[in-house]
Write a structure and sequence with these properties.
620 residues; Nucleotidyltransferase, domain 5; 21 helices; 4 domains; alpha/beta; six-stranded mixed β-sheet; globular
């Protein structure tokens, strides 16, 4: 047995979600699952949760792990929960009037036309003045120029000026997207800049946890399109990890069920993610991923993300029971971590109170975190779990909510309240944690709403069931708008999937498949993802100069014939994609190149050249 094991190599798959961190060991040769483990994600200190998950793996040959593959929902959750860092945005050439997820926005001089020609230059002094402001107010900088994909020189110039006068990380739009769509390209860049700290901290935590077990294998990260990149690329392009967890779950769902047609429903703690498998393949969204309310140019599987999960906050507003997208720690989980939670709930119940949610201090220290006087007053006031009502004794109401949100976002304070996870603990469908806290929380919530306990439970269960039904029908209709066949079978992924999806599947009259190991499907999928890089170039005819302009990802070139431009693109784009794939961690690469020419009424419009370089470690 030991001799056989010694001849094998293994892959460690890790998925860090908003609630759980899952780990699996897969044999790299036959894809056999060797062991699996789950542990709570410790947001205040990610290292602890990752170490706990790895520690629970029943595997004694960690020195034979040749690769570590990571998937995570941290980036997606940070955007949904609005917990990404503060970003300063510099726009070049054109202002955007649509909403932007940036702390502050400046428009500067400079303009590029559709053919990549420079119409107006950048003013260096203007940039320096803005940077001096950013150095005091933001954590990172995004730069986006109108039509920069036709000529990135202005973005590169602005980036150079920033780097000469600031230590803040800076990101350019043309590096992240080669697609038209100024607004979407800008959104992508802002989100990338806002995620830099989150993904850097995550990777640092992973490396620290791996070091504790002497695991020295290279680290790979799952992107939103279900492919892998090396950790250094993930630090530069953290936005590519958006929908990483859901993408891994699709790969895991395909592997565990071998279904060719299905709707994959991944119910996590913070979000529900839904994707469609058709003809055994996962459809890549040609328009880029939509995350929360933001349309981006992120290359990702066609995944629909909704802010409803096992840890969604159930609360009472004006006597009405609401289920909102905000994630809170389930009372059952909090009580298992902190004995004072149950004591506080017992006191509230004895006094016939209605004060929920509760707040308590995490294990994270406040060292190095900027706190104003209000933040400090609240932080010191939370010596034990308490409600917002109790905090009004220490701070004025108008400052309370913003300070609490800041303390929670920084991981210093944990917000705990009634959740769908608590509902399932009360019903006995899921009993991983302290159901006594769930029962007390439900009684307090029912009292606040002026309804019976059973009415509360039924209302929450029926609301969530209907939400799932509506989502499945809406997505199927959107994707299969020309189909008349019944809804696809549902593959349920995630720890709470079975408990919540069965009533919805019965309502929809569709098959529900909860495969073995569905609770760690994301980690399995992470271990099965390939390295694959995509690149695109465009050839366009410029009538005024009678030339053909080739827009490569990294340059603009001019040719006197369409054929010469296309030939150059096909030759060099493949090399470009291959270099990207090598940097992403690929080794034995297969390169596929395609060319499509567009004509309207016999008139040439453009040629699109695409290259894909893939290192298929596994073929599923």
């Amino acid at each position: 047995m030991d001799k056989d094991i010694a001849a094998e190599t293994y892959i460690l798959g890790i998925d860090t979600g908003g609630t759980y961190t899952d780990s699996v060991i897969l044999n790299s040769r036959d894809k056999k699952l060797i062991c699996k483990a789950k542990a709570l994600t410790t947001k205040e200190n990610l290292v602890t949760g990752i170490k706990n998950s790895i520690r629970k793996l029943d595997f004694a040959h960690k020195n034979q792990i040749v690769s570590v593959s990571l998937s995570t929902t941290l980036a997606t959750n940070a955007i949904v929960e609005k917990k990404n860092c503060r970003v300063g945005l510099i726009l070049i050439g054109k202002m955007l009037n649509e909403p932007l997820p940036a702390e502050s926005v400046y428009l500067v001089q400079g303009r590029i036309d559709l053919h990549g020609n420079i119409l107006f230059s950048v003013d260096e002094n203007e940039i320096k003045e803005i940077v001096s402001t950013f150095n005091r107010t933001v954590d990172s900088i995004a730069v986006s120029g109108y039509l920069s994909i036709r000529n990135p020189s202005h973005e590169l110039q602005v980036k150079q000026i920033i780097q000469e006068h600031s230590t803040l990380p800076v990101f350019c739009a043309h590096d992240l997207s080669g697609n038209l769509g100024y607004y979407e390209r800008t959104i992508t860049t802002i989100l990338n800049a806002g995620l830099i700290t989150i993904i850097s901290d995550f990777l640092a935590a992973v490396k620290q946890a791996l070091k504790a077990y002497s695991i020295t294998a290279p680290i790979m990260v799952v992107k939103g399109d279900g492919t892998l990149m090396q950790e250094d690329m993930a630090v530069e392009r953290p936005v590519d990890t958006v929908l990483s967890g859901p993408a891994a779950s699709i790969i895991g769902a395909k592997f565990l069920t071998n279904k060719k047609e299905a709707l994959v429903y991944d119910m996590g703690g913070t979000t529900s993610d839904i994707a469609i498998i058709e003809n055994g393949s996962v459809y890549i969204n040609p328009n880029g991923a939509t995350v929360d309310c933001w349309q981006t140019h992120i290359r990702a599987a066609n995944i629909y993300t909704f802010g409803v999960g096992g840890d969604s906050h159930i609360h009472v507003h004006e006597k009405a029971v609401r289920i909102c997208s905000e994630r809170v720690e389930p009372l059952c989980v909090a009580a298992s971590k902190n004995s004072q939670i149950l004591e506080t709930l017992l006191k509230i119940e004895a006094e016939k109170g209605t004060s929920l949610p509760l707040y308590y201090k995490s294990e994270k220290t406040a060292s190095g975190i900027r706190l104003n006087n209000c933040d400090k007053a609240i932080y010191h006031a939370i010596s034990r779990p308490c409600s917002q009502d109790e905090m009004l004794n220490f701070v004025q109401k108008e400052h309370l909510e913003s300070s609490l949100n800041y303390l929670v976002a920084k991981g210093l304070v944990i917000k705990t309240g009634m959740t769908p996870t608590d509902i399932k603990h009360i019903r006995g469908d899921y009993l991983a944690w302290d159901d006594k806290a769930s029962i007390l929380g439900a009684k307090i919530t029912a009292r606040a709403a002026g309804i019976a306990l059973e009415t509360l439970l039924y209302t929450c269960e029926d609301t969530i069931r209907q939400m799932i039904v509506d989502l499945c029908e809406e997505i199927t209709e959107t994707y299969d708008h020309n189909r008349v066949s019944p809804l696809r079978p549902i593959i349920g992924i995630g720890a709470p999937a079975a408990a919540w999806l069965l009533p919805a599947a019965e309502t929809l009259s569709v098959e529900l498949d909860i495969p073995p190991h569905s609770d760690v499907a994301n980690a399995i999928g992470a271990a099965l993802c390939p390295v694959s890089e995509y690149a695109e170039a465009i050839v366009r005819y410029q009538k005024e100069q009678d030339i053909y302009v080739l827009f490569m990802p990294d340059m603009r070139l001019e040719f006197h014939s369409k054929e010469a431009a296309e030939e150059y693109a096909q030759t060099h784009l493949g090399s470009y994609a291959q270099e990207k794939a090598i940097r992403a961690g690929g080794r034995s690469l297969e390169v596929i190149i395609s060319l499509d020419a567009d004509y309207v009424c016999g008139k040439y419009i453009q040629s699109i050249i695409r290259a894909v370089a893939t290192d298929p470690r596994f073929s599923i």
